[in-house]
């Protein structure tokens, strides 16, 4: 039986790019500022600009495209399905937001396809997609321990910050366990390929998830016991080996983030309509 090969590269990758040299606090604020900008704007021009800048930063990170290509395909597929469901649930939502109605394809009931609806779905889909590249940039260029140190520096309790670090650090390990268990089950005749019926595949996937959950719980128990034996959490404060000082480049990036956010809030406040619609 031919086994499925799964490649998962969504973890820290030390490529030595200029983004890796930035402080973890700077990259965290960049990520949060980016998300804020996406949430406050419904201007397609701004959203497209964010996507272009995001992929530019992703290229600057020097991470090969093949590493995150499967995730990008999966994300795009999910967003397209989300757009379809949005149309099925509220087919005239775009007409209500744009204040006009231009029918392209007449259909029964309220399901006529209009220019306004297509523009609305395009804007919302790209709005969600614009967070994809910056999320990858943050994960690829920020070491989990450095990120935890940055969170602690911003005032987050170090116990919570360290929990975040462990989560980011062991996600690739969980993925490796999933692949190993899947290959072991396939060697035993468990079929999860496209040749098997859907219900059979779902049942067989459960045979993979069960051992994966128990192995993850076992790993968590081992880590918890090791941390308890070393006295983790006994003191109110702790030091961080990987904490980097802020440099000039960090302050420059923070100034750019603040400027862009101010312009974004001003643009949102001055906009007459929620959505920018040129037609």
From TrEMBL:
Keywords: Membrane, Transmembrane, Transmembrane helix. The chain crosses the membrane at residues 28-58, 70-90, 118-140, 251-269. Belongs to the CbiQ family. Its main location: membrane. It is found in: Membrane. It is a multi-pass membrane protein. InterPro entries: ABC/ECF_trnsptr_transmembrane (IPR003339). GO terms for cellular component: plasma membrane. It comes from Photobacterium chitinilyticum. This is Energy-coupling factor transporter transmembrane protein EcfT.
